[in-house]
Specification:
The protein is α/β, with parallel strands linked by helices. The protein has 17 helices and 13 strands. The protein is elongated. Bound molecules: adenosine monophosphate.
């Protein structure tokens, strides 16, 4: 059996051990033991872990372990989080862990008086915890200098991007020193998160913790192969007709647009029985929907990955993956919503051809096959296609396009000598880049991409 890692196995120091003792924490959580050395090494890190896994200490333990005492006023660690509640929570956690360390921590967020925050910043800080918008405003006012930031943590990056903060993040990247360690934590992987990683991180080390406590043994998993979106709708409606079996159903859809489209379809067929949550809905609307679903007033809840995480609702009879998650971690998060407290849960996954590869990835991640069910013969296969399913219109079908025979031949006169020169890209910038092999402009996205593939 694998030996349980203890805090003694991590290279901490007395002030941290004392703080952990006070907190009564005996063992590091899996994300804490896995992340410690990687974060401490200074490499870029992407951690996939949900709230509740101890992820705040996963990045704070190594950061506090190696943060030296300093009198300088400019902060050296910046932690970005999506909401002000999280700012408060993270600051509290850091203060507990740093109880015996002389470190200055400040939380800043929007919706409160910026002048009070400016004063606090001006007193000198070591660690700033912030929401992106307020951070940027403070930086623009020049009260907050970011030139000494050595470590950037972006926590709950999936929520951050889902709430539309990408642009704000890019603005902040632009004013941060180029040489810094990037540490990202996300509960789910999404395309947006993937894009951000490939655009701005150089070969980050990835740490994933298995979704703890996902009781695979009491979740019955099965799947259907389905032709297209509207056929999936037909199949779903067919299943949901059985109100007794499908009495509390959580349906996952990857994109907001499709979540809304599906909601409209179900609302027609089962009026008043469904509700939907995603980040374009207001907080109140989302809370109300969740409450109605929890209380059983609505039998069906449609949700996107990011919005449904952390949902702890009892007695969910079925999780239906209306689409097949591209990332196996998301599949685990999704199905873990059913089969709680040792009850039998059911997880159904719909896959169209494009998604077959994803189901294979999920199966190898779990090291088990998800049984395939026969597509019910009474369900109509729809011919209607949504935009992304329609065939691409190809240029060669364009009747106005010139055929090859009509193509112009070579120029009938030789080029003049001066025009024969080939452009070798001989600018100063290219020479310097070739010599030093590093980007001369900040955040050179293409350079990072090129080098990542090496
Ligand atoms: P987080 O995932 O960072 O939101 O942490 C979830 C909760 O677990 C917080 O209340 C932490 O204080 C607590 N926690 C963090 N690390 C440990 C640990 N090693 N042992 C017990 N509880 C922990």
């Amino acid at each position: 059996m694998e030996q349980q890692v203890t805090f003694q196995d991590l290279n901490l120091n007395t002030p941290l051990y004392n703080a952990l003792d006070d907190l009564g924490f005996e063992y590091p959580t899996p994300i804490q033991s896995q992340a410690f050395n990687v974060v401490a090494s200074g490499k870029d890190v992407v951690g996939i872990a949900q709230t509740g896994t101890g992820k705040t200490f996963a990045y704070m333990l190594p950061i506090l372990r190696h943060l030296k005492y300093s009198r300088q006023d400019n902060p050296r660690v910046l932690i970005l989080v999506p909401t002000r509640e999280l700012v408060v929570q993270v600051v509290e956690e850091i203060e507990k862990l740093a109880a015996y360390i002389n470190v200055r921590v400040l939380g800043v967020y929007g919706g409160t008086n910026i002048n009070t925050q400016k004063q606090a910043v001006a007193e000198g800080q070591d660690i700033i915890v912030a929401t992106p918008g307020r951070l940027f405003d403070l930086a623009l006012s020049h009260v907050l200098q970011l030139k000494s930031i050595q470590k950037l943590v972006i926590d709950e990056v999936d929520v951050m991007l889902d709430l539309g903060f990408r642009h704000q993040l890019l603005n902040i990247f632009d004013i941060l020193p180029e040489r810094r360690q990037n540490i990202m934590f996300s509960a789910t992987m999404t395309e947006d998160v993937d894009d951000l990683i490939s655009d701005f991180f150089i070969t980050p080390q990835r740490i994933t913790v298995a979704v703890s406590g996902t009781p695979l043994h009491n979740i019955e998993q099965s799947r259907y192969e389905v032709a297209n979106f509207y056929t999936k709708v037909n199949l779903l409606e067919h299943l949901l007709n059985d109100t007794e079996t499908y009495n509390k159903v959580l349906i996952f859809v990857a994109f907001k647009k499709l979540a809304d489209l599906l909601f409209d379809q179900l609302e027609e067929r089962f009026p008043g029985q469904a509700c939907v949550i995603h980040s374009n809905k207001t907080q109140n609307y989302r809370l109300r929907s969740i409450e109605q679903f929890r209380a059983g007033e609505n039998r069906i809840l449609i949700a996107t990955d990011v919005m449904a995480r952390g949902l702890d609702i009892e007695n969910i009879s079925h999780v239906i993956n209306f689409d097949t998650p591209k990332y196996p971690e998301n599949y685990m998060h999704r199905i873990g919503r059913t089969g709680r407290a040792e009850q039998q849960g059911h997880a159904l996954t719909f896959s169209k051809e494009k998604e077959f590869e994803a189901i294979q990835t999920i199966e190898s991640y779990m090291d088990m096959k998800v049984p395939l069910l026969d597509f019910p013969s009474e369900v109509e296969v729809s011919k209607q296609l949504i935009e992304e399913e329609r065939p691409q219109i190809r240029e060669r079908n364009n009747p106005t396009k010139r055929s090859d025979e009509d193509a112009p031949g070579p120029a009938y006169h030789e080029k003049k000598d001066k025009n024969k020169k080939e452009n070798l890209g001989g600018s100063y910038k290219f020479k310097i880049a070739a010599k030093y092999k590093k980007p001369k402009t900040r955040g050179d996205k293409n350079y990072n991409k090129r080098n990542k593939r090496k």
